[in-house]
Write a structure and sequence with these properties.
The chain is α/β, with parallel strands linked by helices. It is built from 9 helices and 6 strands; from the N terminus they run ααβαβαβαβαβαβαα. Helix content is about 45%, strand content about 15%.
Length: about 200
């Protein structure tokens, strides 16, 4: 019921977003925003090159007043996140999480701040990251969470957040159990237990 109401309300792309989104990207942004407002997770599984990052940046702008936000991504794309944020969402303050200064960083972040962390840093810093509640936690290349038994997947599920967004062009690489794993990060329990799903 919450989701139906939120979807009917609609959401405009924030005025602070620099540039313009194509129609399908606006639709993607509204999908993410409605689910976030309803307190539910979402998976955006667009093909590569269709602009998942900028749809997600519009969402981060939309939610910036709710508190600090976290983006977890492979190390290889963290620079891309910094560049895209500076171009399309310059009002966000993007901070890369340095393991040597993580305690100080986590104490100082607030509204408008987006913390960037690699999956490796997430795994090694899960105990510290669990001490904060994030307005939004976004997992890029989320097929990295396809194996529910890994420390990485367990760390992802342990974070305290209001909204969860997963971006991936490959929600299922090899078998359906991978879908269960990433859905269990996005919306825990929606697909039931792993045994029941199998």
């Amino acid at each position: 019921e919450r989701l139906r109401v939120m979807a009917e309300e609609g959401t405009e792309v924030p005025r602070t977003f620099v540039g313009s989104l194509r129609d399908y990207q606006v639709e993607g942004f509204r999908f993410l925003a409605a689910r976030a407002r309803a307190g539910m997770g979402a998976i955006l599984a667009d093909d590569m090159g269709l602009g998942k990052t900028i749809q997600a940046l519009a969402l981060l702008l939309d939610r910036m007043e709710r508190g600090p936000q976290l983006v977890v991504a492979p190390t290889s794309v963290l620079y891309n996140w910094e560049m895209e944020a500076s171009r399309f969402a310059p009002t966000l303050r993007v901070i890369r999480l340095d393991e040597n200064e993580r305690d100080e960083t986590l104490k100082s972040i607030g509204k408008g701040d987006v913390l960037l962390a690699s999956y490796g840093v997430l795994t090694r810093s899960a105990d510290v990251l669990q001490k904060r509640t994030f307005a939004t936690v976004l997992f890029d290349e989320a097929h990295a969470l396809k194996n529910a038994t890994t420390k990485r997947a367990r760390a992802a599920k342990s974070l305290h957040r209001e909204a969860t967004v997963l971006l991936t062009g490959t929600p299922v690489e090899n078998h359906l159990a991978e879908l269960h794993s990433i859905m269990d990060v996005a919306i825990p329990g929606l697909l039931g237990t792993r045994k029941a799903f199998d």
